[in-house]
Amino acid sequence: MSRTMSPIVRMSLRTMSCSAAALALSAGLAHAEFRLHVLHTNDFHSRVEPVNKYDSTCDAETQAKNECFGGSARLATAIARVRAEAEAKGEPVILLDAGDQYQGSLFYSTYKGKDTVELMGRLGYDAMTVGNHEFDDGPEGLAVLLDGVDFPVVSTNIDVSQSNVLKGKLPKTAVLDAGGEKIGIVGLTTTETTQIASPGPSVVFQDEAESLAAAAADLAAQGVNKIIALTHVGYDRDQEMARVAGVDAVVGGHTHTYLKTGDEDAAGDYPTMVAGEGGAQVPVVQAGTAGRYLGHLVLTFDDAGNVTAAEGEPILLDASIPEDEGVKARVAELAKPLEELRQRQVAQLAVPIGADRDQCRARECEMGSVVADAMLERVRNQGVTIAIQNGGGLRAAIDAGPVTMGEVISVLPFQNTLATFRLPGADVVAALENGASQYEEGAGRFAQVAGLKYTVDPAAAEGSRISDVMVRDGDGWVPIDPAATYGVVSNNYMRNGGDGYTAFATKATDVYDFGPDLADVLAEYLAAKGPEFAPALDGRITVR
Fold it and tell me: Which of 117, 154, 342, 420 is a Cys-bridge partner for 406, taking CB atoms 3.0 to 4.6 Å apart?
C-alpha cells in the first residue's frame, strides 16, 4: 500500500548537505574520498549449521559432496577475509544485520537467542536492527538479545517506553566510528510485526518513513553526515525508505531478497540504485536468506557525506570458503543438546497417522489432512479458510503412542515456514490442477487440503482433471467462486512457485512467507488435540 509522505519526510537534508559542500569548496577546503566497506546479513533465521540448496540443515552425505552453504563457521571466514583485505588498504569495515536472526532451526528452539548472542559477538557485528521474529517469544525473547550483545541493536520506529521488559534497552539509532568517521545507523522494523509476531500491547510501532526522517534529521543535527538505514521492512519498502531525506544507503531485510547485477534469478541489481531526495542516487541492498550470502557493499563518500560511488556484490558462501575451525567446533558443541530436543515428547496419539508415499501423492492421506488442518488452525483467526500442502513434503508417518519432536521433524524435515496470502478462486482451482498435473508420475505436487473439497480424474487431460471444488461455508459446503478472493495458507516453498505452483508465486496478494516452522505448527496442533486424537480420512479428496 502506498503512503503519502509527511512534510518531515520531504524535508531536504541532502540539499542542505550539498549547499554546505558548495560553501566548503568555495572556501578552498581540500576534499578527500572516504571508502567504507559494509558487510551485511539479513534473515539468517538461526541457520547456525550449513544448509543445503533448500535452506535446510545439511546432512553428512551432502556435506561430503561439498554441496552445503553458509553456517556461522563459513560466515566467520568470509567476514575475516574481507576485513583483512580492506584493512590492508586502510579502508574500514562495518558488519551489520538487518533482523530476523531468530527462528528457523532447532538452535533457536533450544537456546531461544542465547546462541545468537554468542555467535554474533564472536563474528564481530557492529549493529543490528530488530526483525519481527525477534518478537516470536514476546518482549522477553527480544530482551535476551538486547541484554546479551555488546553492540547496539536499534529500531527508531519501535516505542518501548511502556514496556517493563524492554524500556531503556532499545535505542533508536547508533553512531559507529569507522576509520575516524562517524557512521549513523538508523534501525527500522516492519509495522506488520503486531500481526505476525508477539510484541505485546505495550510495544508500539510507528510509521517507518516518518520515524526514519526524524532520526536522520536528529543525526544530522549532531554533525553525522553519513547515514545508513538498517531496515527490516522489505525490498519494496526499502526503496521507499531510500527517498527519505538524509539517507545515504539502505541495508535491508524481511523479504529475503536476493540481489545481484546481471543475474536473471535475482530480484534486482546489487546495489539497487534509487533516486533519493534532491536527485541523489541511494543504494539499496539485501543478501538473501539463511546465511547463503554475505552482502558486501562498498560506499565512497566525499567530505560533505555524499555518496559518490556504490559498488559490490553478495558473496556466495559455498564450499569454496572453508569453515572457521574455532567457530565450527563451538557450533558442534552447541549442537549436542539438539538430540535431546529430538527425543522430547510433544504429544500422544490414539492411532497412527499414515503417510504412505504413494497415497499422499495421489489421494487423500491421513498425514496430509492432519498437516493441512494444523496449518489452517494456526491462522484461522487471520481470515484464512483454505490450506494446501504438497504431498511430497510429507516424509514420514507417526506411530500411535508417545510422539517425539524428532518424529514430527521426520514428517516435515525441510524447515519450511507457514505462508499466508490471498488468491482468487479461479487460481485456487488452477493450483489444484497443477497438483494433479503429474499424477501418473506420483509427483510430490499433489495437493493435500483443508477447508476445501475436490474431485480429481486422473484419466482426464491435463488442465481438466479437477472438478467439484467446494469450500466450507459455516457448517456446510458451497461451490468455490472463481471471482471471489480467498485467504490461503501453504508453505513458503510452494508459495514461491515450488512444485509448479506458479499461481501462488504470480497471483497471490497480501503475501507473508515467514511464519513459524511447519514442524512446530504440527507439534503444537497434536499437543492441543490430546491423547485421544484419532485422525481418519473424511472424503475431502475424491478420486474417480
Answer: 342
Instruction: Give the Cβ contact number of residue 335 at 10 Å.
Output: 16
Q: Domains along the chain?
A: 37-335 (3.60.21.10), 345-543 (3.90.780.10)
Here the cell at position 260 is 545481484
- 173 forms bridges with which residues in the sheet? 186
Side chain identity, residue 318 = D
User: In the structure grid, which three cell numbers stand for residue 376, read together?
Assistant: 489452517
Is the previous residue joined to 271 through a cis bond, with omega within 30 degrees of 0?
yes
Which residues lie across from 25 on neighbouring strands?
none
Q: How far is Cα 368 from Cα 362, in angstroms, rounded to an integer?
A: 11
- Contact by Cβ (8 Å): 306, 39: no
C-alpha cell at 236: 519494496
All three cell numbers of 83, joined, read 576485513
In this structure, are strands 447-450 and 386-390 parallel, antiparallel, or unpaired?
antiparallel
Q: What are the C-alpha distances in Å from 334 to residues 109, 121, 328, 337?
A: 12, 15, 10, 7
Q: How is residue 534 written as a grid cell?
A: 484419532
Q: What angle do CA 507, 449, 536 make, to 5 degrees?
A: 175
DSSP 391: G
* pLDDT tens digits in sequence order for the chain, 544 residues long: 333 333 333 333 333 333 333 323 333 344 579 999 999 999 998 999 998 876 767 878 889 999 999 999 999 999 999 999 999 999 999 999 999 999 878 898 889 999 999 999 999 999 999 999 899 889 999 999 999 999 999 999 999 999 999 999 999 999 999 999 999 999 999 998 887 778 999 999 999 999 999 999 999 999 999 999 999 999 999 999 999 999 999 999 998 899 999 999 999 999 999 999 888 999 999 999 999 999 999 999 999 999 999 999 999 999 999 999 999 999 999 999 888 887 889 999 999 999 988 899 999 999 999 999 999 999 999 999 999 999 988 988 898 999 989 889 878 877 789 999 999 999 999 999 999 999 998 889 999 999 999 999 999 999 999 999 999 998 999 999 999 999 999 999 899 888 899 999 999 999 998 898 899 999 999 999 999 999 999 999 999 9
- CA atoms of 210 and 113, how far apart (whole Å): 30
First vs last C-alpha separation in the chain = 44
